[in-house]
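Weekly modeling sync, notes
Attendees: AB, CL, MP (scribe)

Item 1: holo prediction request
CL wants a bound-state model with pantoate before deciding which constructs to order. AB pointed out that an apo prediction alone won't tell us much about the pocket. Agreed to run with the ligand included and paste results into these notes for async review.

Input as submitted:
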Amino acid sequence: MIVFTEIKDVREHLRAERLAAAKEGRELKVGFVPTMGYLHEGHASLLRSARMDNDLVVLSIFVNPIQFGPHEDFERYPRDSDKDMALAKREGVDIVFLPSVNEMYPQPTKTKVQVAELTDHLCGAARPGHFDGVTTVVSKLLNIVAPDRAYFGQKDAQQVAVVAQMVKDLNMDVEIVPCPIVREEDGLALSSRNVYLSPEERQSALVISRSLRQAEQVAREQEEATAEDIVAELVRTIESEPAAKIDYAEIRRFPSLESIPGSMRVKDVEGKLLIAAAVMIGTTRLIDNVILTTEGVK
Ligand code: PAF
């Protein structure tokens, strides 16, 4: 495993690897997993998919300051380079790209990448500018690594939708591969931010996955269930936990993220549905979701 901190070095290395493969008459497939580090089994599952599908796996670790709001947790975002390197080695990563803030954003920088509409809802509404930061850094990383495939976790379902839209709109030559949410045995979706939770808060946080499971069950089992019923079920369960404060609890089409009329029966919606929640547990904001296909609902 080779670690690079400079853009020119990672580019040069990848160019040489591609050239060497071409000389042997092979096309080198590069899989890319962009992360902010503090890696867990969710990231490991992305790396495993990348390992299976590609000849070379590149992992980036960069806590991207421009996707954090002024009062968010950029400074205290968890970091553990040694543990990250051990996990990367274990998962057979070939290249780790570990740039500094100055390497990624030499000043002054005047360009940002912005996806409209999809970013108006859910986390985009609660975290203004967040997705501009994500799409800007993901564009830069995709330009640097030029992968064939890039892997993203479905826990950030809106991020997957936004990045896929950006790649399509900008004709970027990369396949976006969404990967399923990885959960603890008790249902809690893995997140680097889970480290902020006290033992009591961690217990309270279970209400999020429980509420989504229950909402999913209503959608699947109750023929007449409307979009409003699903949201009501979600809200009712989350509000039963005193330590939980809802930021949003919604049902939308996926990946367009268009709203669904409250009175519409869920089984009448065509395509995929996203049931998503963002909940404050103490000072920690957690997100989770389930994606349903209408075939699954009918
Ligand atoms: O999902 C994340 O960890 C980040 O949003 C990403 C995609 C690495 C961009 O900073």
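Recorded for review: The first helix runs from residue 7 to 23.
Action items: CL to compare against the apo run; MP to circulate these notes.
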